[in-house]
Amino acid sequence: MANWGLKNCCDHDQKVFIACVAAFTVVILVLWRTFLLTPFKLITVFLHEASHAIACKLTCGQVEGIQVHANEGGSTQTRGGIYWVILPAGYLGSSFWGMALILASTNILTARIAAGCFIVALIVVLFVAKNWTLRGLCIGFIVFIAVIWLLQEKTTVHILRYVILFIGVMNSLFSVYDIYDDLISRRVHTSDAEKFAEVCPCPCNGFGWGVIW
Length: 213
What we know:
Blueprint: H1 12-30, H2 38-58, E1 62-68, E2 74-79, H3 83-86, H4 89-104, H5 108-126, H6 132-154, H7 160-183, H8 192-199, H9 206-212
């Protein structure tokens, strides 16, 4: 029989995890319009554009460059590949990376792996970046993650898991906000969903594709 009372459903670590996700969500929403979140917003834009690039490479295309702009916009220049796979990869990729980072934060080993992969990805993108905003972002976060990792290993300041969790929650929230901002609060006709609707107009327009994604 189902236990709808949810008694003994969570141990201490699980309760701390849920509390941290809730607290980070509140902090992010409260500080959303402030400059304090700008670096983390830009890193989510980076992961959005990186997802386009990965989809391009997986469909045998060529990535010619990636840009992230200080106004929280970005672009990925691609040649070839499957366009209708590349376009939705940005929104869906942000959600995927958010989920992956949140799950990785539940264990120190997976948090280390996530941090290491993150640094490697930033180093790779550093060499294909087409503007100094993205280059500076890559360098800044490489240093930031490296310092957090060093503190984790050499001191009693063990916050690597919480940093990975924060970036994951930020990505998850930003992916939803990005769709809302581009398609609901205002119509951006150059958004991924609007472009996708041009390629695949049935069964709905850009707004509909955004909701589906």
